[in-house]
Amino acid sequence: MSGQGGWANPGPAGLTALAVACFTFYAVLSGKVDHSCVPLLGCWLIGGFVVQLLVGIIELMEGVTLGGNVFTFFAAFFMLTGGIEFFVKYLGAVNGLTIDARIDGWAWIVLFVTLWLWTPAYLKTGPLALNIVVLALDVATPFVAFRDLGMADPASSAAWAANFLLIAGIFGIYVAAGIILNTAFGKTILPLGKPPLA
After folding, report:
1. How does pLDDT run across 50-67, given as a tens digit for each residue?
2. Gyration radius of the chain's alpha carbons
């Protein structure tokens, strides 16, 4: 994470935006809320896009290749694209339009494979608590992809994705709080752990 070249570490804001997405996706996928919420969910995701894009740009300016790229692609595809898609799907459903949403599954394949291939870099450089976020996303994202493609049972894949997104969201909040509190107090208030492959 950044904070070494003059800019403050924006990671906590990006992780909070990620946690919002994870919690709201959990609520939809687990059936805690019904699908009439999707326009509001779209709004939250577009708000998260702004935060994550700024975090990604700052991290890249600080020379943080991994974090900068991850936040940037999360901003674009999880947040902005996801937010706009919720509006499109909602308007399509309201107007009786048929939309082949399997295209989302094809896009999610790229996202989960990219995340999987980048995970060893997190395991080498990121604190343990952040790695739990990444590993939970590694499990959740293929379930979303295969569900969208129609290759997995919708109910069970939604349940798996929902639960691992909730785990990612909880640990995202924890890591964000750890960075803020540990920095403010100049000591470990919330332990984040060492990178597993360091």
Report:
1. 999 999 999 999 999 999
2. 17
